[in-house]
Amino acid sequence: MTAGSDWAVWDGGRFGDRAVCVRADNPGPFTLDGTNTWVLREPGAARCVIVDPGPDLAEHVDAVLAEAGDVGLVLITHHHFDHTDAVELVRERTGAPVRAVSSEWCRDADPLGDDEEIDVDGLHLRAVHTPGHTADSVSFVLPAERVLLTGDMVLGRGTTIVAHPDGALRPYFASLEKMRSLVANGEVDAVWPAHGPVQPDAGGVLDYYLAHRRQRLDGVRAALGQLGVEAGPHLLEDEALPRRVVEIVYADVDESMWDAADWSVTAQLAYLATE
C-alpha cells in the first residue's frame, strides 16, 4: 500500500451534497497521500459529523475545524494514531462527543453498536462493524449518498494491511463479504476511504480485495510447500517462518515493505493454522 510516484496526488475536496474530505499532510508508505478526515453535514444543517480527526497537526486540525464549524459528533473508524492523534485537540476545541467501537476512544458517549443508526441534525449514518484491519474497525453507510466510509479496511489505491494479532484474516474476509452485501442490496455504490481517492465502483474494488487476498493465501500455501512446511497449528511457532515466506511470496515487492509484509503473512499463517 504505497502511494507511488506515478499517481497524481490526491487532495480531497467536496463530494456529493454532504461531504468534504480534508486530507492531512502526513503522506507515507502506510498513509498514501495522507489521512482523509471526512466532514459530513446534511444540507442546511447547523452541526456536522467529523469522521477520523487524523494526526495531531495544527494546520490539519485548523483546516478541518474551519470546514466543520459547529461539530455535533466525532466518529473514529479505528484506533491507529494517524486517525486518532487529533481527538483530544478536536474535542477540546469543539466539545463534541467522540464515538468508536472501543470504549477507550469514546468521550462522553457510548461505544458504537453494529448496525446502529446515527442521526445528527438530519444527517443519517449507520455504523457497520467491519473488523479485520484492526479488531475495532468500523465503517459507516451514508444512505443519502449511497456510499460507505471504510476507514482503512478498503483504501483508495492498493490494498490494506492485516497485521497480526490485532488484524485477523477470518474477520477481514467476513467484513469484506458484509460490505459486498451492501453493494448487492443496492445500499452502496461508492467507497470513501481514509487514505487515497474515492472509489466510485464499490463492487469492483471489493471484488478485487477479495480476489487479491485469496491469491495471496494461495501464494503462502505454495511457499509453505516449497519450504516443505505442512499446514497446521504449529505454523506460528517458528518466528522465522513469516520472513521466509515473505521472501518467496513478496519477491516482486520492494524490500522496504517486507516488514509490513511480515505482519500480513503472520496473519495469513494464523488463518491457515486453523483452516
State the gist of this model.
The protein has 275 residues and is of the alpha/beta class. The protein has seven helices and eleven strands.
Task: Based on the model shown, name its key terms.
275 residues; Metallo-beta-lactamase, Chain A; 2 domains; six-stranded mixed beta sheet; five-stranded mixed beta sheet; elongated
Write up this protein.
The protein has 275 residues and is α/β, with parallel strands linked by helices. The protein has two domains: 13-211, Ribonuclease Z/Hydroxyacylglutathione hydrolase-like (Metallo-beta-lactamase, Chain A); 212-273, no CATH class. It has helices at residues 58-68, 81-84, 87-94, 169-184, 202-227, 241-249, 258-273; strands spanning 13-15, 19-23, 36-40, 47-51, 70-75, 98-99, 116-120, 123-129, 138-142, 147-149, 190-192. A six-stranded mixed sheet has the order 1-2-3-4-5-6, with helices on one face. Helix 5 (202-227) packs across helix 6 (241-249) and helix 5 packs across helix 7. The longest helix is centred in the C-terminal third of the chain and has 26 residues, at 202-227. The two termini are 26 Å apart. Residues 1-6 have low confidence and may be disordered.
